[in-house]
Amino acid sequence: MTDKVKKEDLSMASRLSVAPMMDWTDRHCRYFHRLMSREALLYTEMVTAPALVRGRALHLLDYNPEEHPVAVQLGGSEPAELAAATKLCVAQGYDEVNLNVGCPSDRVQSGCFGAVLMKSPYLVADCVTAMLAVAGDVPVTVKCRIGVDDQEPAEVLPAFLARMRDAGVTRITVHARKAWLEGLSPKENRDIPPLDYDLVHEMKRAFPDLHLSINGGVQNLDVVEEELTHMDGVMVGRAAYHQPYDILGTADQRIFGRDADPLSRHDVALAMEGYIGRHIAAGGKLAQVTRHMLGLFAGQPGARRWKRVLSEGAHKDGAGFELVREALPR
């Protein structure tokens, strides 16, 4: 898909999505992921509304047309500013605008956005209402946690989902862990709080009119297929980054029912040649792209050498696609 995606097709694409991950899911990563799956929904790194509206850092919205279906995730907590940022994202051609209500990092808290907003559902409702007012036919969605700190998820989450539904949001992704805003680092918040899939499944039964995706701890496509018997969609984070082929390589066939044969891992690597050539010709460095490709052969013979050759050589002056060819498992 290279054109803007229809809303009903986007709903189908969100059966499997790759999570927004800071410093990871940039446009180079998304182009690479799109070679493995034509159908999965890809998310940008979080872009803050202040950076777009006050800082005019519009380069943060750059993407490749091949990335569709692609969604942008915004961070912020000021309704008018988020509305202005949403207008910029819509004008750029994104298929979806997502509001971050789940990131637990310190810098996000200090800006009063991310997971801390779980404590302010009325403010979040005001934000999405303002965003929806300017989004036209582009969906505005939310990614949240099941709760934060000492909140009781079984009470907080259904009230939050009801508030979002009443504000006009129809699609929400729930990270099935609490976020502890004090005492745990962002990395620890991705591992230590226990997953509560049962609660998220219960939310789907309680809100059949909402399109709900589950996120957190999904390691392979078997889990994705199992979760799709309970949920409308599954969002995969770190596994999709560190073992991208395991998640995306056969996803179009297994999750979306496509007949086309998947590219092999080698074919995916070789298909990056034109993109890498254009990037280097424009003044970019090989390592800016290949750092996202290190997990392509995860678990396969030759994976260690693939990672070593790229890690040691891609940052060097003059490094080009020939290094990728050299690194390929024999």
Automatic annotation (TrEMBL):
Among Pfam families, the record links this protein to: Dus (PF01207)
Could you name the active-site residues? C103 (proton donor)
What's in the keyword line of the UniProt record?
A: Flavoprotein, FMN, NADP, Nucleotide-binding, Oxidoreductase, RNA-binding, tRNA processing, tRNA-binding
Any idea what job this protein has? Catalyzes the synthesis of 5,6-dihydrouridine (D), a modified base found in the D-loop of most tRNAs, via the reduction of the C5-C6 double bond in target uridines. Specifically modifies U20 and U20a in tRNAs.
Q: Where does FMN bind?
A: P20, M21, M22, Q73, K143, H175, N215, G216, G217, G237, R238
- InterPro entries per the UniProt record, alphabetical: Aldolase_TIM (IPR013785), DUS-like_FMN-bd (IPR035587), DUS_fam (IPR001269), DusA (IPR004653), tRNA_hU_synthase_CS (IPR018517)
Task: Indicate what this protein is called per its UniProt record.
Answer: tRNA-dihydrouridine(20/20a) synthase
The protein's superkingdom reads: Bacteria
Q: Which PANTHER family match?
A: FMN-LINKED OXIDOREDUCTASES SUPERFAMILY PROTEIN
Q: Locate the DUS-like FMN-binding domain: which residues?
A: 18-321
Question: What chemistry does it catalyse, as a reaction equation?
Answer: 5,6-dihydrouridine(20a) in tRNA + NADP(+) = uridine(20a) in tRNA + NADPH + H(+); 5,6-dihydrouridine(20a) in tRNA + NAD(+) = uridine(20a) in tRNA + NADH + H(+); 5,6-dihydrouridine(20) in tRNA + NADP(+) = uridine(20) in tRNA + NADPH + H(+); 5,6-dihydrouridine(20) in tRNA + NAD(+) = uridine(20) in tRNA + NADH + H(+)
- The protein's site described by Interacts with tRNA is found at N100, K187, R190, R304
Q: What is its EC number?
A: 1.3.1.91
Q: Name one GO molecular function term.
A: tRNA-dihydrouridine20 synthase activity
Obligatory cofactor(s): FMN
UniProt record similarity statement: Belongs to the dus family.
